[in-house]
Amino acid sequence: MKKAKKVTFEGWKNCIEISSGKFRVIVSTEIGPRVIGAFYGKSKNLFHVDPALAGTKAEKGWVNYGGHRLWHAPETKERTYEPDNGEHKVTVIETEEGGYEFLTPPNPVTGISKSLAVIPADEETFQVIHTIRNDGVWEVEAAAWALSVMAPGGVAVAPQNKNETALLPTSFYSLWPYTKMNDPRITWGEDFLMVRQDPKAKGPMKVGFNCQEGWLAYINQGIAFIKQFIYEDGETYPDNGCSIEIYTDKKMLEAETLSPLMLLAPGDEITHTELWSAIPADTVLKTEDDVKNLFCGCDCEDECTDECGCSCGHDHHAGGTAKKKSASKTEKKPAKKAASKKSAKAKK
């Protein structure tokens, strides 16, 4: 069953709660917009919300309230850290599919406007569409960047690339300066990259790579939260080719997916789509076999067969893709207007 209602959540008023079966999400409109809550059945919030910031609006500057947000990459202090503390009105539009689109006006410094659409898809799934639009006066190279701030205590999992050829490299990893290769939170597995959130960790770490299989999961509180997307082969991704990135510190873990970099003329926009799902996961993930047993539902002495290293039969793709839209192709949404007839150009 799909339904929506207005609620107060963690002290923020006028939030929109959207349900798809047992899976429900809550989107803030006083800040953000952010998907500030995600629940499966009777679970606690799958997302982290900073208790010191819950229900507040920062007086100035950007703060990490938690939840799921939309940024644009590459990361720069001036452009990326745009405050979302309620200074700019969030316009809410109900979609024909029974979901909602949340729009913000162009940033006065960057000229970038954002849209976050949350649409119930099949039972217990959501299509989350991230759009950044260049409403400025000059070209901007950017990528849409979808970041989910997950509650502490879980494990992030991403599938390693599996190409047939042995002549060329398949995976390209990016490490941030504060990251150590031998960090005990990371497991560099044959089939999966695993990153554990550790509340006792002394410092942060971050890793990213060109995940071609198009999914990233976080397992915590007996629930696996799964983000699926389409990897665009042949396109240029931010941060030396990263389509996913995982950041963690002692408070939380961020599960991030990115679109390819694109050169946006005035009026052009990028959309990047994730498909969210959640499944019961009453297991402790210590090894790769634990991951295979969770997602495959098999005895991992058996051979896993599908393209994701999984034989579960599920489609591990979002049904959407990072794609460029011409500004001349206007959509029936009052917050958007056609400003140019030029198409967005993908950087090769």
Count of separate structural domains:
1
- Report the sheet with the most strands, covering strand number, pairing sense and barrel closure: 11 strands, antiparallel
Question: How widely separated are the two ends?
Answer: 43 Å
CATH class: Mainly Beta
Overall average pLDDT? 86
Say how many strands there are: 23
Note the run of SSEs as H and E: EEEEEHEEEEEEEEEEEEHEEEEHEE
* Low-confidence sequence ranges: 305-348
Write the CATH fold name: Beta-galactosidase, Chain A, domain 5
Which strand-content bin applies to the residues? Answer: 35-45%
Rg from alpha-carbon coordinates: 19 Å
Put simply, the count of helices is 3
CATH architecture: Distorted Sandwich
Helix content bin: under 10%
Give the overall silhouette: globular
**SS-based class:** mainly beta
Q: Which features does this protein show?
A:
40% strand, 11-stranded antiparallel β-sheet, mainly beta, Beta-galactosidase, Chain A, domain 5, disordered C terminus, 348 residues
Quick summary:
This protein is mainly beta and 348 residues long. It is 5% helix and 40% strand. It is built from 3 helices and 23 strands.
